[in-house]
Specification:
single chain, 253 residues, alpha+beta, L-fuculose-1-phosphate Aldolase, seven-stranded mixed sheet, 11 helices, 7 strands, binds zinc ion
């Protein structure tokens, strides 16, 4: 059953709502209208995710729906239809309560892998443009500047397009279980991206870094020069960069 948020949770939800409103500013090109969603994963089993149809640009703490992460994960494994998945999301009732985002399962999977924090899911125009040009792999595997490594780690996960909602959550869970997908940035071909960090502000920072790198790659063209892998490894392991990453509240390990 859904509990009232604790005082600590309430502050996290307030900060997440504030960050979501900032993220949705049109100049960022991250979302339009009701695109995107955000979740706050508190220690234990709880996940607070935005209600379906919510505009990030007007998000309020009361727009989050509290769910059980373990129940979502079990649902991803057990469900074989959209109707069954809807029952997991709604608890089997349409009785006037807000319905959580259909991507709640994806948030639960990443929360299971990456731990407590904030997950921001957006549909950034430059990232979509790069993937539409068949260059998503470059954004996932190549690192362009030192801060790209600091904030996004040495590589990101790139998923082929699958049906949003249950199928996307199933694919993400499979990759996590196979142990091939440890990253704080997941790129979703034909769909958007997801960023995880320890705070809402940092999740937006990571998102904006990915968008900046997508813009750089688009401007530089297909022959864009990436950092040599030896330099990427060096940046990733430097003590001073680990210190800066901790201050930025980014977990890009
Ligand atoms: Zn989406």
């Amino acid at each position: 059953m859904v509990n009232r948020p604790t005082v600590a949770d309430a502050e996290e939800l307030r900060l997440a709502a504030e960050t979501a409103r900032a993220a949705a500013a049109p100049g960022n090109e991250l979302v339009v209208a009701a695109e995107g969603n955000i979740s706050v994963l508190t220690p234990g089993d709880r996940l607070h995710v935005t209600a379906s149809g919510t505009r990030l640009g007007r998000l309020q703490p009361s727009d989050f729906v509290e769910m059980s992460r373990s129940r979502l994960l079990a649902g991803i494994e057990e469900c074989t239809s959209d109707a069954a998945w809807k029952d997991v999301l709604t608890g089997g009732t349409d009785a006037g309560t807000a319905r959580p985002s259909v991507e709640a399962g994806l948030h639960a999977v990443l929360g299971e892998q990456l731990g407590a924090g904030v997950i921001l899911h957006t549909h950034p125009t430059p990232v979509l443009a790069l993937m539409a040009a068949g260059r998503g792999e470059e954004l996932a595997r190549e690192r362009m500047i030192p801060d790209h490594v600091v904030m996004c780690g040495t590589r990101s996960v790139l998923l082929d397009y699958v049906d949003p909602g249950l199928e996307l959550a199933k694919q993400a869970l499979r990759l996590v279980r196979e142990g091939e997908a440890r990253s704080n940035v997941w790129l979703l071909a034909g769909h958007g991206m997801v960023a995880h960090a320890l705070t809402a502000e940092a999740a937006l920072d990571v998102t904006l870094m990915v968008v900046k790198m997508a813009r750089l790659l688009l401007a530089a063209g297909p022959d864009a020069a990436a950092l040599p892998s030896s330099e990427v490894r060096r940046i990733a392991s430097r003590e001073d960069e680990r210190y800066r990453r901790a201050l930025l509240r980014v977990d890009a390990g």
